[in-house]
Write a structure and sequence with these properties.
about 180 residues, mainly alpha, 2 domains, three-stranded parallel β-sheet, 8 helices
């Protein structure tokens, strides 16, 4: 059976990119029995999501174009009033989107990405992998030896996740080996 292990950044990318649709999360949920979720991935997601939401809000606020009229001639054009009305509507909608984003950050029940990740973590179908001191020790060794993955000099989160996946892989290989004897 194929197992899908999802890195924290995959979940976090749903906040900050436009390339992936929420439909991907729906598909993952439909295939929950194939999903493996290391506990550290879930913890990293919870720890990082608000920072990303803040960044999205900030970038969206900066994206609002400024009202700029260069001359009285433009302001006296008959269509100019329609432009002003459109600008006012745009400003109102833009402000409403910012408000909804802030509300979502403060109320996780409005956060669609959080709800999918939380549902998967709470699901009995999704296989969760805990980490313990032995995994952390293996991750430290991996980090010291410079074995991938590992992008942070100060933390070993990637290494811990990798070691939890290796434990799962060893378990699968052990189980599979029993079927052959």
């Amino acid at each position: 059976m194929i197992k899908i292990v999802i890195d924290t950044n995959v979940f976090l990318d749903f906040y900050d990119t436009h390339t992936e649709s929420i439909k991907v999360l729906e598909e993952l949920k439909k295939n929950a029995s194939n999903v493996v979720l290391p506990k550290l991935v879930y913890e990293e997601f919870l720890r990082s999501k608000n920072r990303l939401i803040d960044s999205v809000i900030s970038n969206f606020e900066k994206s609002k174009p400024k009202k700029h009229y260069s001359s009285a001639m433009i302001q006296n054009l008959p269509i100019f009033k329609e432009l002003e009305n459109a600008w006012d509507n745009y400003s109102n909608y833009h402000g409403n989107v910012v408000k909804e984003l802030r509300d979502m950050k403060n109320n996780q029940e409005q956060d669609v990405v959080f709800k999918y990740v939380e549902d998967m973590f709470r699901s009995n179908e999704v296989e969760k992998i805990e980490y313990d001191d032995s995994i952390i020790e293996k991750a430290k060794r991996r980090h010291i030896l410079g074995h991938p993955p590992g992008t942070d000099e100060k933390t070993i989160g990637d290494e811990v996740i990798w070691e939890t996946i290796l434990v799962l892989q060893r378990w699968i290989l052990t189980v599979d080996a029993r079927f052959f004897f």
